[in-house]
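I'll show a typical protein example:
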Amino acid sequence: MSLIDSFRAEARAAPESGIVAVVNYGRLREGLIPLWAGEGDLPTPAFITDAASKALAGGETFYTWQRGIPDLRQALARYYARHFGKTFPEEQFIVTGSGMHAIQMSLTALAGAGDEVIYLSPAWPNFDAAAALSGAVPVPVTLDHSGNGWSCDVQKIAAAITPRTRALFINTPSNPTGWTADHETLQAILDLARAKNVWIIADEIYSLFHYGHGRAPSFLDIATEEDRILFVNSFSKNWAMTGWRVGWIKTHPSLQQVFENLIQYSNSGVAQFMQRGAVAALDEGDGFVAEQVERARKARDLVCGILGATGRARFTVPQGAFYLFFTVDGITDSRTAAFDIVDKANVGLAPGTAFGPGGEAFLRLCFHRRLDQLEEAAHRLAKWMKSI
């Protein structure tokens, strides 16, 4: 028996990220414009890094509150009061080592071997893989796509529920499609979850990156305190903190000790000086977030205009998040296309094959970057489209 054969089947089966495969192929190309990853091009702003540096210099380097320092949990409560109009006690928040860690902790709490977890596809690939690693069976339900854009048929979710279903993973606004659920759809999903006695893992990480009026609709707008919903979120996108790896879970106060125990046996808590930076992000960062959303809106419109003018790109203008998920006439294998685009256009995109059922023919472009780079990248892509 080889070394790898002695590993758990779930670990051996963990897939290589289809996004990272393209990144590794093209990341050292001179002059390449990287639009493959889900992050902006701005470093973390000084008001956040200064708060963390001050805490680091001040000796806040010891073991800390595993559920998060009280100051950060109180800042989260203030954030929700401002943006969601809801008052929550600090006992409803658990600080995690990234949004991905929040998802892993939620899956650990809810699903194990043989359990099923339903998710909407095309989807960020990490959820599917994380569910499988926990021993659960990830069950994709595809969003519908038509000339009217992306939509969710709640009856398709209902048809996928079995006695083994433990949770529904709902990401809105969506990575990669930009689909954003309206209140009617959220209500239908919540009604279904209540009727079937299953949990919802609500990934609302992009709720502020919404191009309608204000933030995106949320389960918080319609849920009661006793609804079975775990809200997972991250500091990465709103405040340019992707490398910090800090996130949170919002949950019922009665579940605090369970999640504190899960934190204890995973990362044992987030570094306290990093949490000080997160407090600054929440309390001082609303203006920064608003600027980033407006910047992304302009970037979206620029890219859509240039690619749309080719007559070859097909897409729905995204309602939320900061990705353009598009097809190109004549292209059916997006993985091969993504490598070809690196070679011939010197632009890095994520292949739709990485995002599961329904995404195979698409390419994902992150437009959360400065306009001159995006304009150049879009023209390179337009030239590539004309050449194929």
In short: The domain at 46-283 is CATH 3.40.640.10 (Aspartate Aminotransferase; domain 2).
